[in-house]
Write a structure and sequence with these properties.
Blueprint lengths: L1 E9 L1 E3 L2 E3 L7 E4 L5 E6 L4 H16 L8 H17 L1 H12 L3 H21 L6 E3 L6 E9 L2 E5 L5 H14 L3 E5 L6 H13 L6 E3 L4 H9 L5 E5 L2 H10 L6 E5 L5 E4 L5 H13 L11 E5 H16 L19 H14 L5 E4 L18 E4 L6 H4 L6 E7 L2 H9 L3 E2 L1 E5 L3 H10 L4 E4 L14 E2 L2 E2 L4 H6 L2 E9 L14
Parallel strand pairs: 1-5, 8-9, 8-11, 9-10, 11-12, 13-14, 13-19, 14-17, 16-17, 19-20
Antiparallel strand pairs: 2-3, 4-5, 6-7, 7-23, 12-22, 15-16, 18-21
Helix pairs in contact: 1-7, 2-4, 2-6, 3-4, 3-6, 4-5, 7-8, 9-10
The protein binds ligand TXE.
Length: 499
Amino acid sequence: MTTAMSARSVQHFIAGAFEDSAESAPIDRSAPATDEVVSVVQAGGPVEVSRAVAAARAAFDDGPWPRMTGMERSVLIGRVADLIERDAATLAALDAEEVGKPIRLAEGDIAGAVGLWRYAASLALTMSGSTYTNNGPDFTGLVLREPIGVVGLIVPWNFPALILSQKLPFALAAGCTAIVKPSELTSSSAQHIMRLTEEAGFPRGVIGMVVGDGRAGQAIAEADGIDLVSFTGSTATGRRVLAASAGNLKKLSLELGGNAANVVFADADLEDAAAGVVFGVNFNNGECCVSQPRLLVEDAVADDFVAEVARQTALLRVGQPMDPRTDVGALIHAGHREKVTSYIDGASGDGAAVIFGGTRLTEGELGRGQFVAPTVIDRVAAGSAAFQDEIFGPVLTVTRFHDQDEAVRLANGVQYGLANSVWSKSVDTVLQVAKRLQSGTVYANTTIDAPPQMPFGGYKASGVGREMGQAGFEEFTELKSVNIRTGKRAGTFAIRAGA
Ligand code: TXE
């Protein structure tokens, strides 16, 4: 590991000021493609979180933000969208470098982030409840929708700016104040977005950020002054967040791991499906919660289809993240690369065979980074670890099926339920399978393809709650029933017998 001359400093953003930690030593972050230290991140903990909570609490309880009109909030959120668009190249470079993802994908993430801020700006105008007038002439029931309060937003490393944008503008649109906790591995784009919110003119304390590792996340999950935590990360850490949040029974939205299947029927457009399968598992180096590492393919076409998938996989170019020709970059860190390759090593046997890739790439300049060849493992058994676990790398397992029942059983036969794809030209097959799949998202004849209007979240161990869409916005709200009687109450409260 070497330290680049120009390592960035990433600080907390508390009560409108950027600052260092009072006590803990900062964390060095090395770029996974070069092993050079590119950022030095302050390590926050309970001290910084409690100060950020105090600022966000004051901004919510006494400040202007929740009291502004939806239109006023919408204007400020929209301004951030414009500023992210202005600084898209800078933000994309920060994420590409720290995640190790190809720059073209990082640019796509930032364009997605702009769309999310714009969409959330429009939702600020829609905040509404409902009215009941069908309980007699003297009763009116008002259901008021209110911001839930102060929210903690814990973001993982795979889509730093994008996942932050799946949470923060929606919380702001609802009138909440927020504390962001990016991953210690990829905090630089979040710091840049904090600066943009300052430039946009958000009132002091409405948005804060505590950077650091799990200690800062844990302090957010435990904080009594926080009303909701929205967390994206591993299922194991999600369980810790759930336990830590019990103190004040805060509301939780947990977007956790995934292990999606691409279910390919013999009557699919096999050309599109093969391209979709290769994209679905290698997109973002396979480090994507809706990645599709499991190919389930109908027997009748399996051999030819798998050969085509392997052929297209061989065309992928693994390389430096900043090279626009790169399709697959470096994995997030050495430990993760070890984990990914251990699944490849453990998958052979029991009839399974690595038919493409399967190795760490160490040639030339790739030798300094965490590069793994895109890999295809054929004839993987449903009980194996490679099939069951979230590998989170560019590794495709192939399993064959005979009919729709078996396809659905295999697709649903894992603990996760975030997303799956189905490929068939038959509308019957597509709808039948979509209804039977246990996942919060089903892509049909496409993959990893979701506009901001579509709610996103998991079944089973993939989480609770939804992000994006109207449902994602409403996660950040609370309902209040106001039960109103009109007219004289005489005789209504007859608690005493005979009164
Ligand atoms: O995630 P963590 P990790 C999966 C993927 C990956 C594995 C481990 O399989 O290999 O998780 O990744 C913060 N209380 N996903 O260890 O720990 C942490 O600082 C509160 C899937 O990096 O879940 C970071 O900001 N917060 C996933 C965030 O939680 C805590 C994306 C996520 O880190 C905490 C990432 C604690 N006790 C990994 N400990 C997806 N769904 O896309 C850590 N954190």
